[in-house]
Amino acid sequence: MYKLLTTLVALGASLMAAPALAQPLKGNAAAGEAKNAMCIGCHGIKGYQASFPEVYKVPMISGQGEAYIAASLNAYKKGERKHPTMRGIAEALTDQDIADLSAFYSADGKTGSTALPAKPANEPTAAVQALLGKANCASCHGANFATPIDPSYPKIAGQHADYLFVALKAYKADSGNPKVGRSNAVMGAMVKQYTNAELKAMAGYLASVEGDLKVVPQSRFR
Q: What percent of the chain has pLDDT over 70?
């Protein structure tokens, strides 16, 4: 009995001494707006194009999911997404900076609570529908491609077609390339089912679908 009591006391003491589980950081949109100087030069100009690893419009991030923006920045910071410019920017951000920027951009440009249709108004061609069904894209990104089932997944409806194409190809990139590629087991397995021509066809359709994403020019660029 004494041994049992001693064990229970020791266990209780260790539990009391254990540090509290870290709480997720809460982003502050106002603080994020004050920290976005490194973002607006690309994401705050309509039609702005990147030139690496090829020419394409930089993604629209205003209206994107908060958790997805944070996950993306952390992936660049860790090198799971390979892009020299984005990694350099992400590495300069603290965890709180990432939380604040994510909060800002997820709310940026929202003017109301207009609900998107449950499914795209413009139906894909039979060929594109078959391609989307092959990897069951809607099962993660939502039937309208703007309501992902997990907040860390992206909204892809209405995103620039050329960006989507480049992003999808990045999941197919050789993992030995130090500057190009994205590490994600699920997406990697999905995209490898497709030719680049098929990825381009899907990207073109997804870009035509109504969504929340937009470019909100900052005052200095208007």
A: 87
pLDDT digit string (tens) for 166-198? Answer: 999 999 998 789 999 999 999 999 999 999 999
The answer on pLDDT for 47 being more than 60 is yes
At 170, the amino acid letter reads A
Nearest of 204, 185, 162 to residue 53 by alpha carbon:
162
Q: Is the dihedral of CA 174, 76, 208, 148 positive or negative?
A: positive
pLDDT tens digit sequence for 134-151: 999 999 999 999 999 999
CA 168 vs. chain centroid, Å, equals: 13
Element (H, E) at 84: helix 84-91
The pLDDT value given to residue 176: 85
Q: Taking a C-beta distance cutoff of 8 angstroms, is the pair 171, 184 a contact?
A: yes
> For the whole prediction, is pTM greater than 0.90?
no
DSSP H helices, 18-82, are 29-34, 37-43, 66-78
Give the helix/strand (H/E) hosting 108. none
> In this structure, what is the dihedral angle of CA atoms 30, 212, 164, 54, given to the nearest 10 degrees?
-50
What sign has the CA pseudo-torsion 62, 66, 68, 69?
Answer: positive
The two tokens of residue 94 are 């603290």
Closest C-alpha to 216, from 50, 77, 104, 68? 104
User: For residue 67, which amino acid is it?
Assistant: A
Query: Does residue 123 surpass a pLDDT of 70?
Result: yes
Domains of the chain: 26-109+117-213 (1.10.760.10)
